[in-house]
């Protein structure tokens, strides 16, 4: 952590430092597409590659005989995703079911990075001598709004793609102007506006839901980490702080495992629901 020599960070500085991304440049506006958060990009790609590798290993080692524990776990996961996709998407699922499986595994791995100690990335950077170059580093891609909205924009593109593919250009345009209020020409503009708002709301809510939960979890981990270093902030309750740090950290980490899996499941299910809606005709 970059702080002035001889100056220990106060709680506000500690939290602010850990909530800043390693960005290509300083952000001066709310929306700036020229800025790249390198840490979010790195860990998103790394977890995507890891997820694909795990699934590839499972497929490569699959046998027709008695499966091992790893193969059984992957088969249970695949069957769960297949059952969900079958009940939601009424059409060809040759691409959609594997997509949902990939989303679940990918988001689970990205969320799981939140279980690592909050100061571990900074310590590793110091050990390898890159602290002068990498001044900030956030290891959880889903705690960055840019990362989660990126996923939701990808889902939006798939929604539009399947809307055109299943209904045709004419059918999809007809639906945009006639649903939900009817085919009267006076209702074309209200129908179009409502459908545009619906697409935007789905995209924003999908990204914000995952971001909000993971950001809150990351913030709680930071607050718990402060208990362990309470002596450095001029307090005289070091022992209580350490005990609280261990107990609260363990309890929250165990509970956060549920959040990690639940948010990945919700992301997968909403992806299936939105793509399934694109298959349905109004």
Automatic annotation (TrEMBL):
Localisation: Cell membrane; Membrane
InterPro entries: ATP_syn_F0_a_bact/chloroplast (IPR045082), ATP_synth_F0_asu (IPR000568), ATP_synth_F0_asu_AS (IPR023011), F0_ATP_A_sf (IPR035908)
Main location: membrane
Entry annotated with the keyword Membrane: yes
Alphabetical UniProt keywords: ATP synthesis, Cell membrane, CF(0), Hydrogen ion transport, Ion transport, Membrane, Transmembrane, Transmembrane helix, Transport
NCBIfam families cross-referenced by the UniProt entry: ATP_synt_6_or_A, PRK05815.1-1
Membership in a protein family: Belongs to the ATPase A chain family.
Protein name: ATP synthase subunit a
